[in-house]
Design brief:
Helix content is 55%, strand content 16%. It is an alpha+beta fold. A 6-stranded mixed β-sheet has the order 1-2-5-3-4-6. It is elongated. InterPro entries: Bact_OuterMem_StrucFunc (IPR050330), OmpA-like (IPR006665), OmpA-like_sf (IPR036737).
Length: 219
């Protein structure tokens, strides 16, 4: 056999190796491209989520500042609080213990809220959810008018809602919700905590939120 033929014979087995190497490199390149695309898509999603969260925070901050400005005078009295867009009023300011009868000073306080809230809700096409809350102590009512804390909180929310309407708030802008002893803002282990949990809150919400709210009632 000639020297040329021997060289050709020695080269023939190496051809499949290069073919396999080329296929492997093509596969690795394809996988790298897929991984890179996946990383880019994740980054795009994260950026979009971050931008959406920033816009949400801006909207919430704008709403908070507008509500704070609208309620500047009632807030200065110290009997009204504003936390995360919720207007809070202590139950002792509005009602005697275990009662749904509005105190005269409580009604006067609600009256001061009507006009600024009407303007605020009208500018944003929103409505006001009036929510009643209690502590976890069993009802101590000699007349047994209320079977439990949920019923008491519901009646208090309705009482506040009706008082707001009587003082000039349009009824279509209001609805009542009852939570009883749920969602406490303090521990019920002492009187101070229980007094904080006995409260009524009012929160501006989109009009579509009414259907999703638990234990809602019309005034």
């Amino acid at each position: 056999m000639s020297e040329l033929e021997e060289r050709e014979d020695s080269l023939e087995p190496s051809a499949p190796v290069w073919a396999v190497f080329g296929d492997l490199m093509s596969g690795l390149l394809g996988a790298f491209v897929l991984i890179l695309m996946g990383v880019l898509l994740v980054q795009i999603d994260l950026t979009a989520s971050l931008q959406a969260e920033v816009e949400k925070r801006k909207v919430e901050e704008t709403r908070r500042m507008a509500l704070e400005k609208a309620l500047a005078i009632p807030l200065q009295s110290g009997r009204v609080t504003l936390n995360n867009g919720r207007i809070g009023i202590s139950g002792s300011v509005l009602f005697p213990l275990n009662s749904d009868q509005l105190r005269p000073e409580g009604r006067q306080l609600l009256k001061t809220l009507v006009q600024p809230l009407r303007v605020y809700l009208g500018e944003r096409d929103e409505m006001l959810m009036v929510s009643g809350f209690t502590d976890d102590s069993p009802i101590q009512d000699g007349n047994r008018r209320f079977s439990d804390n949920l019923e008491l909180s519901a009646q208090r929310a309705l009482t506040v809602t009706r008082a707001l309407i009587e003082e000039g708030m349009p009824s279509p802008l209001l609805f009542a919700a009852a939570f009883g002893a749920e969602q406490p803002v303090a521990a019920n282990s002492d009187e101070r905590g229980r007094s904080l949990n006995r409260r009524v809150e009012m929160a501006p919400v989109p009009k579509a939120a009414k259907a999703a709210s638990p234990q809602t009632a019309r005034p």
